[in-house]
Amino acid sequence: MRNVLAAMVLISFACHVVTKKADPKVQANKTSKAVKAGASTIKKKAKKIRTSVTFHRPKTLQKERNPKYLRISAPPRNKLDHYQILKYTLTTESGMKKI
Fold first, then answer.
1. Can you tell me the distance from the alpha carbon of 31 to that of 37, in angstroms, rounded to the nearest whole number?
2. Which residues are the signal sequence here (predicted)?
3. How far apart are CA 41 and CA 34, in angstroms?
């Protein structure tokens, strides 16, 4: 867990060092335009509805599968092999003509 947090801190630090801040005047103009446009452009974050009074920590760990053995012992058999396919339908008249 500590390694993950350390990596995230390093990545965020690197991003802050590399990125260049915009000109304050340009940023102010952009903000004023957004405010003048009205409240329709600004979306409020929906409040999370809590359905329980007890807090449960979310389970976020997802490990890769590491099977000890195969769950199927043999590959599936081909059920439509050459014995199953009928060449001639022997009991019908059209089948009798082909023999």
1. 10
2. 1-19
3. 7
**pLDDT by residue (tens digit) across 6-33?**
666 566 665 555 556 778 889 989 888 8
Q: Tokens at residue 12, please? A: 């965020």
Tens of pLDDT, residue by residue over 72-91, are 989 999 999 888 888 767 77
Domains (range + CATH), the chain:
3-97 (3.30.70)
Residue 74 is encoded by which pair of tokens?
């043999």
CA angle 69, 71, 76 (to 5 degrees): 125
8: which 2 tokens? 């995230």
With tokens 């600004």, the residue in question is: 42
CA distances from 89 to 2, 80, 83, 85, 86 (A): 72, 17, 14, 10, 7
CA atoms within 13 A on the CB side of 24: 0
